[in-house]
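W.,

You were right to be curious about this one. When I first looked at the sequence I had no strong expectations either way, so I just let the prediction run and decided to look at it fresh. Below is the sequence, 360 residues in total, followed by the output.
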Amino acid sequence: MTKKVRIAIAGLGNCASALVQGLEYYKNADARDYVPGIMHVKFGEYHISDVEVVAAFEVSTKKIGKDISEAIWAKPNCCVKFSDVPNKDVTVQPGHIEDGVAPHMKESFHCYDPKEITSVNIADALKESQADVLINFLPVGSEIATQKYAQAALDSNVAFANGIPAFIASNTEWAQKFTDKKIPVAGDDIKSQLGATILHRMLVSLAHDRGIKMDETFQLNIGGNTDFENMKKEYRLTTKRISKTEAVTSMIPYEVPTRIGPSDYVPFLNDEKICYLWLKGKNFGEQPLKIQLKLSVQDSPNSAGVMIDVVRSLKIAKDRGIGGPLVGVSSYFFKHPPKQIPDSEAFQLVEKFIRGDITN
């Protein structure tokens, strides 16, 4: 058992930039204070300052070979700068390409030529860095690449935090692999701290609890980062629509017409994400009720604090010898967990997990 939470990151894009900045920004946060933007300054025995990046994998020639403190600012990253990051002595290594780079994204991602650069052996790199947790921040649609990184985690006895909608923790076969090897996994598809999905879930759940019969609902999202550029092609976001839709519809026990997911790429928005929510239903006397709402956030920082909690939960699980999917943690922090649980209940499960009252 070590006091540090040593993390490796696959995909050093905007989400990784926000996370690395956040580790620096909150390193001196007082756990006794209410700190804006953080759910847990201390998660069990681990303070935010105990989390350190020890390895990073990328496909971009703008980032490979650079220290992570420099690579997080390389284009096309556009995450807002909210903290200086000193040199970390962690060099970005070439990772798997596979399906991680769609044909229309090769130029934007500055993808390396496999004839000139070869991916490192991820499992060996994880062992060498002595990582505790591997975070998957690959682009949406990276099914094969995600599976390769998940297998590398299994081969190196490293916990896996799956931040994208390529189903690992919620896939029975993959979940069993992590259970058999007694390696913890959490996922899939990270929820933002207060983003479109969590807000949509809460509104639908509130309406249902108050006796409103939902007739229809939609959630339309636009943004200007590479996540939205990547999802311009519908085939790249099939699992994303499933993940976001099930996260919302699981809150009510009947079918409702829905349309949920990314809607358009607007380059000049950069890392700003704008969400439009629409809910229509019937209240007392079957009278109409409509909700229209607009949410605007900086997309990448909105999920970084959540991932900081996730990696500490996985380290605690490793300390306790717990393997397989973390059910409560996955439900609270991810859109497509192994088991959908209402957020208020999942929050209590996370707190019980921290105290050691439950195993997963």
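Here's what jumped out at me. The first strand starts at residue 5 and ends at 10. And, maybe more interesting for your project: The radius of gyration is 20 Å.

Coffee later to discuss?

I.
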